[in-house]
Automatic annotation (TrEMBL):
<keyword id="KW-0732">Signal</keyword>
<dbReference type="InterPro" id="IPR002018">
    <property type="entry name" value="CarbesteraseB"/>
</dbReference>
<dbReference type="Pfam" id="PF00135">
    <property type="entry name" value="COesterase"/>
</dbReference>
<feature type="domain" description="Carboxylesterase type B">
    <location>
        <begin position="56"/>
        <end position="166"/>
    </location>
</feature>
<protein>
    <submittedName>
        <fullName>Neuroligin-4, X-linked-like</fullName>
    </submittedName>
</protein>
<keyword id="KW-1133">Transmembrane helix</keyword>
<dbReference type="InterPro" id="IPR051093">
    <property type="entry name" value="Neuroligin/BSAL"/>
</dbReference>
<dbReference type="InterPro" id="IPR019819">
    <property type="entry name" value="Carboxylesterase_B_CS"/>
</dbReference>
<feature type="transmembrane region" description="Helical">
    <location>
        <begin position="32"/>
        <end position="51"/>
    </location>
</feature>
<comment type="similarity">
    <text>Belongs to the type-B carboxylesterase/lipase family.</text>
</comment>
<dbReference type="InterPro" id="IPR029058">
    <property type="entry name" value="AB_hydrolase_fold"/>
</dbReference>
<keyword id="KW-0472">Membrane</keyword>
<keyword id="KW-0812">Transmembrane</keyword>
Length: 167
């Protein structure tokens, strides 16, 4: 017959006193618990002391820009990335087929440069129709990585991506 463990008043009193019914001391666990509490406190302090600096921010002549941090690999330190920064007015209307013109307006709000802007319109290769006979394996692998970035295309595509190593 299977016996169930029962908690008795004696076990409860022993736990409060610092021992268990098995005779082990609850004090043996205290250094580990204190170390765990210390690590959690340090983590809380480190996260809480970031001061809201989750995003890098720079001031440009066209207004403030907010980027994001990237961590390319374990061996490369953090990189500040400012994605989709407008470098010229949209090529629409009278500006179509003309040389790029510096942005004419300054934005007072913070420009969100944390996501890629649209890519310029281009014909995307079809890699589903027997691509191995027409291109190398490396080229096919490169295109498979590139294609998700080409799903968002627009004629208003005069944007830069700027990457800055941190110190």
């Amino acid at each position: 017959m299977r016996q169930h463990a029962r908690v008795t008043a004696a076990d409860a009193a022993a736990t409060v006193a610092g021992t268990t019914s098995a005779g082990t001391s609850a004090a043996a666990w205290r250094p580990h618990a204190l170390l765990l509490l210390l690590l959690l406190a340090l983590l809380f302090i480190a996260v809480g002391s970031s001061g809201g600096n989750e995003y890098p921010r720079v001031e440009t002549r066209n207004g403030p820009v907010r980027g994001r941090y990237l961590y390319p690999s374990p061996t490369v330190r953090r990189v500040e990335a400012f994605l989709g920064i407008r470098y010229a007015d949209a090529p629409v209307g009278s500006l179509r087929f003309m040389p790029p013109r510096n942005p004419s307006t300054r934005h007072d709000d913070v420009w969100n440069a944390t996501v890629f802007a649209p890519a310029c319109p281009q014909k995307v290769p079809d890699i589903r129709n027997d691509p191995l006979t027409r291109m190398t394996h490396d080229r096919l692998r490169y295109l498979r990585r590139l294609l998700p970035l080409l799903t968002n295309q627009d004629e208003d595509c005069l944007f830069l991506n700027v990457y800055v190593p941190t110190t």
